[in-house]
Design goal:
Blueprint: H1 2-26, H2 31-56, H3 60-88
Helix pairs in contact: 1-2, 2-3
């Protein structure tokens, strides 16, 4: 089961990198945008790995706390970064 988790995390990582590449082709990103997006994505992926690992070890409370403490800030950080990027509307010509 953990092999499937690592496979899916790898697929999600590739999808995130591709999405960031596509976004960088359409919008002008500064270092703060990159930091927010990458840190948010890493936190979300870490929360998924933490939660699946904890549930597979038989500690579902630790899994849910990991999702709350790591996943929620990752979602908030990613959402805020995307909102600031799209509100600025500096397109690459």
């Amino acid at each position: 089961m953990m092999d499937l988790t690592w496979y899916l995390l790898g697929a999600l990582s590739c999808a995130i990198v591709y999405g960031l590449y596509e976004l960088s082709q359409k919008q002008r990103l500064n270092w703060l945008d990159w930091t927010g997006l990458i840190l948010g994505a890493v936190l979300i992926l870490f929360a998924i790995a933490w939660s699946v690992g904890a549930v597979l070890e038989g500690v579902p409370r630790a899994g849910s706390m990991g999702m709350l403490l790591f996943g929620l800030p990752g979602i908030v950080l990613t959402t805020l970064s995307l909102r600031f990027i799209l509100a600025r509307k500096e397109k690459v010509s």
